[in-house]
Amino acid sequence: MKVIPGLEGVAVAETDVSLVDGERGRFVYRGHWVRDLAVSRRFEEVVHLLWYGHLPSMEEERRFGRLLSEHRELPPHVKEIIDQIPAKTDMMSVLRTAVSALPVTGSWPPAPEQAAAVLGAIPAIIAYRHHRMQGTPMPKVQRDLSHTSHYLYLLKGTAPTVAHERALEAYLILTAEHGMNASTFAGRVVTSTQSDLLSALTAAIGALKGPLHGGAPSEVEGMLEAIGSVDKVESWLRARLEAGERLMGFGHRVYKTVDPRAEALRRVSQELAGEDPWFQLALETEKIALSLLEEYKPGRRLYTNVEFFAAAVLRAVGLPKQLYTPTFALSRTAGWCAHILDQAEHNRIIRPQSLYTGPIPATS
Fold first, then answer.
1. pLDDT, tens digit (0-9, with 9 covering 90-100), for 18-42
2. Which of 132, 187, 212, 298 has its CA 20 to 30 A from that of 90?
3. How many whole angstroms separate alpha carbon 122 and alpha carbon 40?
4. Are residues 286 and 310 in the same domain?
5. Domain at 153, CATH number
6. Candidate list 177, 286, 307, 339, residue with the active-site label
């Protein structure tokens, strides 16, 4: 046997859920370019595509939207559990605990209706904990808002602007799924044992909680805040590179060309730049950073990744930094559930091996 650290380059499943081709910059959900879905479809439509294999008709979209909205109200016992979690506990740990307590049947195989019960509840989990920590009242659940709009409404108490809803919708669609990443793999491993949906999802949330997987947008925002204004971009970035430090939001383990998710979010940022100066700062920073990276690190193929424009979007719509990774989890739940359903349909327990490197005891 040959050890492949991190399983890099090793395929562990066949799936038609998505294609992530980092060499050629191709990103597909079930036969559709994701960049096109992000600017032309609603989040509910894309989730339907991931779970059921096709974009919904108008009637199917209405039914699916109603299914998600039926689970927006948190059960009292889940609220009580959240209330008992110490205040210093991070939001991802709260989310992991609350998801595990949702009243979702553990029947096998898992079904889309179970997945909808979790996805429908996650915005309320995040918002409920957020308001408890801020000492503010939790807004009353609304049934007539879209999933994206309702999430922003729960956090702020008012319906979002069209621009903010559109920006966050694009982000949620682009981050809903991304192949066999660490958290998706964790969910599929648990599913392969014929464990229940909630166990698989809590494993996935635990993996996403790690800073090497889900924490990059906060670091990008810190960089943009430090730059402060468009006239300071080049001097700040050049000083950083001269000091041998990284520019956050550039380069990706998978993509060796332009990240198609970043391309789509750039389009959204360009359209909204006149409405929010934060988008203009991000666009100018990206332009100058790419030029400087080619100057200082020629041939390294360091392109803009999705976290760069994710930071611009999440800041512009008014999310506090501590909600960046939970919001990522909200979107990625769609992809996790798609893979859990896919694994269950073609199940074989995932059981890799390891090479023993320790001593062999003497023969007795």
1. 999 988 889 999 999 999 999 999 9
2. 187
3. 24
4. yes
5. 1.10.580.10
6. 307
Range of the domain at 115: 34-211+322-345
> Looking at the 3D structure of the chain, how many domains does it have?
2
Rounded to the nearest 5 degrees, what angle is found at the Cα of 100, between the Cα atoms of 95 and 102?
A: 95
> What's the pTM value of the predicted model, to 2 decimals?
0.91
Q: Which of 48, 130, 178, 252 is catalytic?
A: 252
Our answer to whether residue 131 is catalytic in this structure is no
How far apart, in Å, are the Cα atoms of 198 and each of 151, 190, 226, 237? 21, 10, 40, 44
121-179 pLDDT, tens digit per residue, is 999 999 999 999 999 999 999 999 999 999 999 999 999 998 889 999 999 999 999 99
What CATH number did the domain enclosing 248 receive? Answer: 1.10.230.10
101, part of any domain: yes
DSSP symbols for 58-112: HHHHHHHHHHHHTT-SPPHHHHHHHHHS-TTS-HHHHHHHHHHTS-----SS--H
Domain contains 53? yes
